[in-house]
Structure formats: structure tokens, C-alpha cells
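WARN retry 2 of 3 for item q-0093 after timeout on previous attempt; input resubmitted unchanged.
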Amino acid sequence: MFGLKYILETYKMSNVDLANKLEINRANISMWLKNKEIPAARIQELKKIFPQVPEPLFNKELKKSEQLSIQQIYFTVTDQFESVRSQHIDSETGKEIWFTETVSENEGLIRFLEHEHEKVSLLEKYETLIEDNDMGNSRINLLEDLASVIERNEPRSLELLDMVLYYLQDKHKSDFDSVFWNVGEQSEPFKEFHTFLEKHKFIR
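OK item q-0093 returned
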């Protein structure tokens, strides 16, 4: 779906509403949506109305991951918060303790959309790799092998795969990596594997 059309539907805004905000004729909006082209000068005006939406998303056919991004933005921007008083019983004294916490109305939905966005983005990345005519069969076979290792779900195989990817992506050069925090090069297998890669000049 065309970006602006999807944004309007997500934000529950009609062509007339947008035309009024931009102070133009609604026929202009209809023409943009029909031709799937927005004048460059109008993009900046749209950014003022939808400031959190990345500029490129207004004027293109959206991928599923980009649609999910817009949904995340919408539910974050329109989120409502309320203060809720809760009771807690102290395990040592048995006394009632009351505290107030702020609860987000859309928190669960936003987390769900974030999770869906991660999955869809990954699928789109692999679809692009598979459809790339320059990849050749050898790289497609590599993707198949990678999927097979993950599907088998054997702990030792996955540990080895983690190590290989850890070094191939240069994560070991970072001061912090969430996946290998408290593990990483502190573990003996990683130290030995690091030495092997340095010896044979896979890494420097």
C-alpha cells in the first residue's frame, strides 16, 4: 500500500481532514494517492503533521515491516497513561504497602508490534537475499544450511554457530554485546576459537 494512504488509515484521518490541515483542496490528496506521488515541497508539510513518521515512508509502496513501523509509531504517539494504586504485602512484617504506578494503555500492543516487526524484517531480508540474482546457488545453499542447523536445535551446534557469527560480524570488537554479555570471550571455547581465527588470519 502507498505510504500516505496507509498513514492516513492508521491515524484514522480522512483526505478531507488532511486537506484542511494542509489548507489545500482535497482533490490534491486524491491525486497524490492515485498517482502515488507527492510533490517534494509537500513532504515537509506532512512531516509537521506526522513528525514521528520517517520521511521516506510517505512517498513509496510500503513493505510489511514499514507498515508495522507506522503502527508502532501511531500507538506510541496516541498512548494513554493512568496512575494505578496497587497493594503489596511485606513478606517479613506482613504489613500492607500501597504504591502508585503509571500504566500504559498500549504497552502490550506496542511490544507485540515490535516483536512482529523484528520477525517480518528478518523474513524480508532473507527474501531479498534469495531473490537477488547475483547471489548464485552457493549462497542460497548457505542459507539452507544455516536454516537446517537452527531447525535441528542442537545446543552444541548452535553454540558453534553463535561463535562463528559473533566473530564474522566483528561483535567481539564492541565493548558491549547483549547476546554475549557475561559470556563472549570470557568463556574458554570463545578464547580458543579467537586464537584459531587470529592464527589463520580470519580476524585481526
